[in-house]
Design a protein that fits this description.
Layout lengths: L4 E7 L2 E8 L3 E11 L5 E12 L5 E6 L1 H4 L19
Antiparallel strand pairs: 1-2, 2-3, 3-4, 4-5
Amino acid sequence: MGDPFRTIRTDPGAFTLRFEGGSREIWSIEFRFAHVQTGGWRLVGVDEAATDRIHGTRARKQLDPSDFGEVTFDTFDVEAFDVDALP
């Protein structure tokens, strides 16, 4: 199946990790981190998207810290986030 890691995008004071994969259900998930004044990197957003290639169903879900709490880069675990944008 291969490694789902695709890209790292950098912006001033922030970076985004993107993962994608699937076969019938194509999915992607992006994790946005920002550098905070207290030091370190914090997860500030998660964007999920999925498409069912048979039925054409598409879905998108956006999460922020109120959904997942405070996550630092040091404590971040990609496997703690299941891509479940499709119902």
